[in-house]
Amino acid sequence: MSTKVSNGDRFGKEQIVNSSLFTAKEKDVLNVILQDDKNYTIEEAKQSMGLFINKEVLN
After folding, report:
1. How far apart are CA 40 and CA 52, in angstroms?
2. Which of 2, 17, 41, 44 has the fewest CB atoms in 10 Å of its CB?
3. Residue 5 placed within a domain
4. How would you class 45 by CB atoms within 10 Å of its CB: exposed for 0-12, middle for 13-18, buried for 19 or more?
5. Is 34 exposed, middle or buried (0-12, 13-18, 19+ CB in 10 A)?
6. Structural domain boundaries enclosing 18
7. Is 59 within the bounds of a domain?
8. Domain-embedded: residue 4
9. Is residue 3 in a domain?
10. How many domains does the chain have?
11. CB neighbours of residue 2 within 10 Å
12. Can you tell me the distance from the alpha carbon of 59 to that of 44, in angstroms, rounded to the nearest whole number?
């Protein structure tokens, strides 16, 4: 069984949050922003996290 992830592979929120590809802090962010009923590529998860982290804070 291969552990290599291809660009087209899609994973559920739980699989992404439990993977070793992200740090604990990144997993906390992903746990908040990813939806339970959707599947994501690793790149989509990274892009979503980047958008969330760099979002402008409103007063």
Report:
1. 16
2. 2
3. no
4. buried
5. buried
6. 11-53
7. no
8. no
9. no
10. 1
11. 5
12. 28
